[in-house]
Amino acid sequence: MALVDNDFTKRFRDIAHDSGWHAPTRPAQALGVWEEFVTACADGYAFDLSEYLNDLSIRKFIQLVLEDPEIQRTETYALFAERIHRIDDRFRGLVGDGPLVRPDSDLWWDRRIPSYGSVEFVEDARERYSVELRSVDGRQLRTRNPRLGRAHS
């Protein structure tokens, strides 16, 4: 089943609009942005913590979608949720051994950060959270991936 369901897409767009998101405007975009962020973390996140937290904010929007009772009644919900949960599992594996930096957060994805990243990410984490992370060689000068957009922080 593809992520083409007019009721799902319409409600997805309504949730985005109501919560102040300008992008992503389609469910497949949200999946792509979340998956690309997780891949960027697996590679060694290449930017500072402010960028990391901004990129991570897509997951909060996705949670709004997952928890919406109207969208849960659509035909596409189960497929969308399954795909998100697969990406979530990968992210849990990445942050599972990372330091606990926001223990009071209600959001599981917001409590820990990856245990490694670019020099910029590592230095920012040390400064902001007083934690030591492993630096990944060759990752600190990558250019920004435009699909990880700056729709909302």
**Largest sheet geometry:** 2 strands, parallel
Overall geometry: elongated
Strand order of the main beta sheet, please? 1-2
Order of helical and strand elements: HHHHHHEHE
Average pLDDT rating: 88
Structural class by helix and strand composition: mainly alpha
- Rg (CA only): 16 Å
Strand coverage percent: under 5%
Percent range of helical residues: 55-70%
Quickly count the helices: 7
Counting DSSP E segments of at least 2 residues, the number of strands comes to: 2
Please specify the SSE layout and strand pairing.
Blueprint (H helix, E strand, L loop, with lengths): L5 H13 L8 H18 L4 H19 L1 H4 L4 H19 L12 H4 L4 E2 L1 H11 L4 E2 L18
Parallel strand pairs: 1-2
Tell me briefly what this model is.
The protein has 153 residues and is mostly helical.
What does this molecule look like?
With 153 residues, the chain is an all-alpha fold. The protein has a domain at 6-96. The chain has seven helices and two strands. Strands 1-2 form a two-stranded parallel ribbon. Strand 1 (116-117), helix 7 (119-129) and strand 2 (134-135) form a beta-alpha-beta unit. The longest helix is centred in the middle third of the chain and has 19 residues, at 49-67. The relative contact order is 0.19.
Structural key phrases:
single chain; 153 residues; mainly alpha; two-stranded parallel ribbon; 7 helices; disordered C terminus
